[in-house]
Target: ATP synthase subunit c
Amino acid sequence: MEISGSINLIGYGLAVIGSGIGVGMIFASVIQGTARQPEARGAMMGTAWIGFAVVEALAILALAFSFVLPL
Model:
């Protein structure tokens, strides 16, 4: 049995699943925090957007590496 194709794309798929879970956890925490302390919503949203940007940047890096690195 021969497997042909790029295994890098499987790694990218796993990275996307991980980043989707990460983004979901970030915003779930913001929603829970806002429900507990509505007056702190502004501070939590700023931190959430920074976390969102970092998680998505890692997903974009995974996409770039999946095409650049030969395997």
Notes: Helices lie at 8-36, 41-68. The first helix runs from residue 8 to 36. The chain has one domain: 9-68.
